[in-house]
Design brief:
The chain is an alpha/beta fold and about 325 residues long. The protein has 2 domains: about 170 residues, Quinone Oxidoreductase, Chain A, domain 1 (Alpha-Beta Complex), CATH 3.90.180; about 130 residues, Rossmann fold. Strands 3, 4, 5, 8, 9, 16 and 17 form a 7-stranded mixed sheet that branches. A 6-stranded parallel sheet has the order 12-11-10-13-14-15, sandwiched between helices. A two-stranded antiparallel ribbon has the order 1-2. Helix 3 packs across helix 4 and helix 6 packs parallel to helix 7. The protein is globular.
Length: about 325
């Protein structure tokens, strides 16, 4: 089969022939029709990720058709259009992942290939209203956003919700999910164009975080926030504390700006704020997310579609930060 191979840190992706995966008990072979990039793939290529091994086939997100299964009991999956849950070995505690938890695409070969093997319990029927390219766009980023916004932040109808860094995959799913919940959604971005695109999706407004007093402007615009979902942390985090309403919830799933200073502690305890981290999600949350996408007929935002052999060009687009939505490989 054809696959995209990463030979080492800072090496370009190469398009090569590799052997088909060998199935073990409980596994299915999926013929991938489309796969999608996450920032995780860029960090792996740059060596900024734990547990690296090379050569490897990356890719956490995939949609395709089940070609065959290892066990007769799973035969009903054969021929079905599916999306893959890339959250492997979550464990028995729904609140936190187990020690042997991994994400598909590093430690286990991923979806940047014509075929991938996966446990059948991680297969889900592709939402019927989505193409394979659209379906490939939601597994990792959608799951991360769903857990952060709904499980951890407990966003609900009528909440004022701020999503930082609109344009990235997780942030955009948080925007779409929050709008579907009936929240009043606002965004930040360093791009006026991305803010306008978020407003076209249904956001109430947004602000460019490059402005000196962006937090004061968006607080005046919104009246403050019940929920804030952040991916950057860094020295702007204390501003999120300032614009959070009493009893508000701040959830972060990334730290692209590094360690944060949460500001004056009294602001946190006097306002009874909840600040928590979130990573990926468990199997029930993935199933709930798929149901949510079906119920609300959510269409993931696809930025650009490349053929598999142009994976290096695709990840370079991500590195330049040009995307609004997901970058997808068509296979």
């Amino acid at each position: 089969m054809k696959a995209i191979i990463l030979e080492g840190i800072n090496k370009p992706f190469s398009y090569a022939d590799v052997a088909l995966p060998t199935l073990e008990t409980g596994e299915a072979l999926v013929r991938i029709k489309a796969a999608a990039f996450n920032h995780r793939d860029l960090w792996i290529q740059k060596g900024q990720y734990a547990g690296l091994r090379f050569p490897s086939i990356q890719g956490s997100d995939g949609s395709g058709i089940v070609e065959k299964v290892a066990d007769e009991k799973d035969i009903a999956w054969v021929g079905k259009e599916v999306v893959i849950n890339p959250s492997l070995n979550w464990g028995n505690n729904p609140d936190v992942q187990a020690k042997d938890y991994i994400i598909l695409g590093m430690a286990q070969d991923g979806t940047f290939a014509e075929y991938v093997k996966i446990k059948t319990n991680l297969l889900h029927h592709k939402p019927g209203h989505l193409s394979h390219e659209q379906a490939a766009a939601f597994p990792l980023a959608g799951l991360t956003g769903y857990r952060a916004l709904i499980t951890r932040a407990k966003a609900k109808y009528g909440d004022n919700v701020l999503i930082t860094g609109a344009g990235g995959g997780v942030a955009l799913f948080c925007v779409q999910f929050a709008i579907a919940l009936g929240c009043n959604v606002y965004v930040t971005s360093g791009s006026e164009d991305k803010i306008e695109k978020a407003i076209l999706l249904g956001a109430k407004g947004g602000i460019n975080y490059k402005k000196e007093n962006w937090h004061k402007e968006i607080q005046q615009m919104s009246g403050g926030f019940d929920v804030i979902v952040d991916s950057s942390c860094g020295n702007t985090f204390e501003k999120l504390v300032d614009i959070c309403k009493p009893a508000g919830r701040i959830v972060f799933y990334g730290a692209t700006l590094g360690a944060f200073n949460s500001g004056i502690p009294a602001k946190i305890f006097w306002k009874q704020l909840t600040i928590c981290g979130s990573t990926m999600g468990n199997e029930n949350e993935f199933a709930d997310m798929v149901s949510f996408i079906n119920k609300h007929e959510i269409y993931p935002i696809v930025d650009f579609i490349y053929p598999l052999e142009q994976a290096q060009a695709a990840i370079e687009r991500m590195e330049r930060g040009e995307q609004f939505g997901k970058i997808v490989l068509k296979i």
